[in-house]
Amino acid sequence: MSNDQGAIRCLVAKVGLDGHDRGAHVVARAFRDAGFEVIYSGLHKAPDEIVQAAVQEDVDVLGISILSGAHDTLVPKVMNGLEEYDAKSDTLVLVGGVIPEEDRDDLYDEGVAAIFGPGTSIEETVEFVRTNAPER
Question: Which family, according to the similarity comment (predicted)?
Answer without folding.
Answer: Belongs to the methylamine corrinoid protein family.
